[in-house]
């Protein structure tokens, strides 16, 4: 190893003489490799600068990409927010529509129930009316049948009564007239007054109800006597004897 101090001490006596060689000439030639080192440092610096430039460029690119990503994320968030707001509005509108439809459905069900109730009530009323009509028709048929039987009996009785009625009209000097009132007959007698054979006496017989009654008498006759005659008529329905008794009462009154 080269030591400068030792070299200096060893060379010191030779500096005293003028012809002695120079110190630089006496130094050994040493190659420190500065040029290679300088070249290596230059290449390192160049690579380092390239690395820094590339790193700076990469950082800038990543920053730009980050900013772009952030902008895209913000835009996407804005779009998502708007979409969420639209969906919320649609959801609210849909909920309102559902509530409206539910109310309309409930109203329709109520209307249907009311109509169904009315229909059932009308069906019951119709069935009741049909039953009443059937009952009335049955009653009418029974009454028609009874009237037919009654008319037949009346016809049969009339056929029997005509000769008898002719006999009583001739025997009692009597004729039968209408009074202008339904179910009321007037019986007129003559030959009751010996002084005036054309003099007429009469009474009206009301046959509207089951029990007959004398509606009027001319001339006036005792009411109790008339009532007894009518009671016997209603009991036996024998018109001939009743007419004879009524003639006797009227004749007795004239006398």
Describe the structure.
With 255 residues, the protein is α+β, with helices and mostly antiparallel strands. Helix content is 71%, strand content 9%. It has 5 helices and 4 strands, in the order αααββββαα. It has helices at residues 4-11, 23-26, 34-171, 223-236, 239-254, and strands spanning 174-178, 184-189, 201-206, 213-218. It has a 4-stranded antiparallel sheet with strand order 1-2-3-4. Helix 4 (223-236) runs antiparallel to helix 5 (239-254). The longest helix has 138 residues, at 34-171. It is rod-shaped and about 220 Å long. The N and C termini lie far apart (207 Å).
Q: What does the oligomeric state look like here? A: single chain
Strand percentage lies at 5-15%
What order do the helices and strands follow? HHHEEEEHH
Structural class: alpha+beta
The 3D shape can be described as rod-shaped
Number of DSSP E strands: 4
Unreliable segments of 5+ consecutive residues:
1-18
Percent helix, as a range, is over 70%
**Secondary structure tally, helices:** 5
How does the major sheet shape up? 4 strands, antiparallel
Strand line-up in the sheet with most strands: 1-2-3-4
Distance between the termini: 207 Å
**Rg over alpha carbons:** 76 Å
């Amino acid at each position: 190893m080269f030591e400068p101090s030792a070299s200096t001490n060893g060379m010191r006596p030779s500096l005293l003489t003028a012809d002695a060689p120079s110190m630089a000439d006496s130094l050994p030639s040493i190659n420190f490799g500065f040029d290679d080192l300088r070249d290596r440092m230059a290449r390192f610096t160049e690579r380092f600068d390239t690395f820094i430039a590339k790193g700076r460029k990469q950082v800038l690119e990543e920053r730009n990409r980050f900013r772009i990503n952030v902008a895209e994320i913000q835009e996407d968030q804005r779009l998502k927010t708007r979409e969420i707001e639209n969906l919320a509005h649609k959801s609210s509108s849909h909920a309102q529509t559902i509530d409206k439809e539910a109310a309309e459905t409930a109203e329709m069900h109520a209307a249907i129930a009311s109509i169904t109730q009315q229909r059932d009530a009308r069906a019951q009323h119709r069935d009741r009316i049909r039953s009443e009509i059937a009952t009335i028709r049955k009653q009418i048929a029974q009454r028609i049948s009874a009237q037919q039987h009654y008319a037949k009996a009346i016809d049969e009785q009339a056929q029997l009564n005509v000769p008898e009625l002719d006999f009583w009209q001739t025997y009692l000097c009597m004729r039968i007239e209408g009074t202008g009132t339904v179910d009321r007959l007037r019986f007129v007698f003559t030959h009751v007054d010996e002084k005036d054979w054309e003099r007429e006496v009469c009474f009206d017989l009301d046959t509207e109800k089951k029990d007959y009654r004398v509606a009027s008498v001319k001339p006036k006759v005792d009411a109790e006597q008339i009532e007894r005659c009518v009671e016997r008529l209603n009991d036996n329905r024998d018109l001939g004897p009743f007419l004879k008794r009524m003639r006797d009462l009227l004749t007795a009154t004239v006398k």
